[in-house]
UniProtKB/TrEMBL annotation:
Pfam families: SCP_3 (PF17844). It comes from Paeniglutamicibacter sulfureus. This is Bacterial SCP orthologue domain-containing protein. Residues 32-123 form the Bacterial SCP orthologue domain. Transmembrane segments: none annotated. InterPro entries: SCP2_sterol-bd_dom_sf, SCP_3. Coiled coil: none annotated.
Length: 124
């Protein structure tokens, strides 16, 4: 079942492109709405490419999605959760950093047997 998109793909791609083109210091200083749009767009893109409900990816305070085929949870905290800051998520989604390098930063919380996005990233 295809996900219901809330972000216009063209607008989301523009926001992500703006983040990618910015230097590291500039990327952190981009307006909050641009970062939020880029995060939400990439979360939707991940959910559409890796459909499923077994892993929950959280990028507070901007968004959350479920992805990866497998057992579905229906209540409470899911058994497979990945949580990370927006700048690190965008670096992963854009390919500026790999999954193992992101884990090594200590800023990624990944719990559960399926909490691994290495096969799904980068998105661009």
């Amino acid at each position: 079942m295809a996900i219901k998109r809330r972000i216009d793909p063209a607008e989301g791609a523009r926001a992500l492109g703006r983040w990618i083109e910015a230097e590291e210091a500039e990327a952190a200083a981009l307006p909050r709405p641009v970062i939020a749009l880029a995060v939400r767009y990439t979360l939707e893109e991940l959910a559409s490419r890796a459909e499923g409900n077994s892993v929950e990816v959280r990028v507070p305070p901007f968004g959350v999605t479920q992805c990866i085929a497998g057992p579905r949870h229906t209540r409470g905290t899911p058994p497979n959760v990945i949580e990370l800051p927006a700048q690190l998520w965008l670096a992963l989604a854009s390919g500026k950093i790999g999954w193992d390098a992101a884990l090594a930063t200590g800023k990624v919380s990944a719990s559960g047997l399926r909490a691994d996005l290495s096969a799904e990233l980068p998105l661009v």
